[in-house]
Amino acid sequence: MDWTLYIYKTIFLVIIFLVTLVVAMYSTYGERKVAAFMQDRRGPNRAGKFGLLQPLADGVKMFMKEEIIPTTANKKLFILGPSIAMTTAMLTGVVIPWGGTLTIGGREFSMQIADLNIGILYVFAMVSIGVYGIMIGGWASNNKYALLGSIRAASQMISYEIAMGLSIIALILTTGSLSLNDIVQQQHGMNWNIFYQPLGFLVFIICAFAETNRAPFDLPECETELIGGYHTEYSSMKLGFYLFAEYINMFISSAVIATLYFGGYNMPFIDQLGLSPNLVTLLGSLFFFMKILFLIFLFMWIRWTLPRFRYDQLMNLGWKKLMPLAMFNIVATGAYYYFTVLI
Q: Pfam families under this entry (predicted)?
């Protein structure tokens, strides 16, 4: 075993884990500030300078709240539900290339924890498993509102996964690889897939909103109908896990979108600056995070701009609009490469 590589991967894994938690934590702060800006108010401004300690105050509140498990709930599954949701949300980031390669002590180390040749399929697998955390939590609560919320979540996520998967097929036809690292390397400079697959990107990002249960697709936790949806009976850190998993999923979804369609860590014209390879890698990672933060802002912008769909409108959009568009995109992409490349 190469212990140097093993130690590097372990350290990098811990760093990505901590960065994911910090970004998700301060996404709650950003959400409130964006909402406040759009509604012409201040938002959090009491806990620390500019309210920057508000996420820490929220975390302490979650830890200190009383732990309540309903007497009629299935205790083991009640605990398992948020655990699955949080675990699958954290596992998705291991295949994302967060940067190029760093040269340390004459050796090159990749800023990717696991370069799987089926990286896209791994992301979809983790997203699919996350549905079980929501479904188990809603059913184990023994509450009709929680059960309805979990059923809604499961049917919504399964429906939109189909259109999302179809949009990815067209992207695979364009790139010829399932590896996220290969896809990023093919987008060197400004050769981004958004210019080749605009329709696929549109379908993918709409499905990403639905997969993360973000407004206007937040039907599983529709307060006006289902109180709190699948986490109605949850309190303390179990509720915190569900809420935190949503923001982690939003962060990872933004990272996947930036990887697939916006060149990942590729920074235009950086090769012309004559910088050292390590500095180029670090600047590329910084540029990658800037793309992610913009996409997170887009998630928040949409939430505070568009009203929530009715459930029938949600399903009609997924099955009757996005799926045919994704299938048309596959046919159009295949026809284009058949007539321009193969012939």
A: NADHdh
Instruction: Quote the CA–CA distance of 88 and 253 in Å, as a whole number.
Output: 13
Rama region for 41: left / alpha / beta (φ>0; ψ in -120 to 50; rest): beta
Rounded Cα distance, 160 and 203, in Å? 10
Distance, CA of 161 to CA of 67 (rounded, Å): 34
φ/ψ (deg, to 5) at 44: -60, 125
pLDDT of res. 254:
95
Give the chain's length: 343
User: For residue 257, what are its two tokens?
Assistant: 């979108």
DSSP code, position 317: I
What is the model's pLDDT at position 343?
61
> Which residues in the chain show pLDDT less than 70?
1, 220-228, 342-343
Longest dimension (CA), the chain: 68
Read off φ and ψ for residue 279, nearest 5 degrees.
-70, -35
pTM of the complete model: 0.93
pLDDT value of residue 342: 64
Q: What are phi and psi of 107, to 5 degrees?
A: -115, 150
- How far, rounded to the nearest angstrom, does the alpha carbon of residue 190 sit from its chain's CA centroid? 23
Q: What is the predicted pLDDT for the residue at 224?
A: 59
Please name the residues in contact with 251: beta carbons below 8 A apart, sequence gap of 6 or more. 20, 23, 24, 27, 292, 296
C-alpha closest to that of 113 among 15, 32, 250, 34? 15
The DSSP H or E segment spanning 253 is helix 236-261
